[in-house]
Amino acid sequence: MDKIHPDLTVTNIKNFIPLTLDNDQSTYTSWVELFRIHCRAFQCSDHLETDKPPVSAAGDKPATSTADKELWDRTDVIVLQWIYGTICKHLYTTIIKLDSTAILYGRLSNTFLVTTRMQGLSTFKINSQTLS
């Protein structure tokens, strides 16, 4: 009998990640931590790092079996669903594209990193004007 991949057992992502990531910067760190923990627990954190299937057991070439590729693709789509199921509508419409999980996750991270940098610059400008 084939072993069922753990991610296939998740029926409601909100049971594991009870918060919704929104445009508020303060939720991002908590959301990322919960999401990474969840992906590690369900053996799919590699989908956040790369859009390429893992290498073969020998470690010298990509996994080539059709079953391995199908499982990778299915898991990738499941993790995408987890992301979409835990973000607000505005972020959903901002980042949605037909991409791999790693690319989408990177786009989401960049959205918050750019926002943080812009907020930091604004704060710096305000503080500089206050000091002048």
From TrEMBL:
It comes from the Eukaryota. This is Uncharacterized protein. PANTHER family: POU DOMAIN, CLASS 4, TRANSCRIPTION FACTOR 1-LIKE (PTHR47481:SF38), PTHR47481. It comes from Deinandra increscens subsp. villosa. The lineage of its organism: Eukaryota, Viridiplantae, Streptophyta, Embryophyta, Tracheophyta.
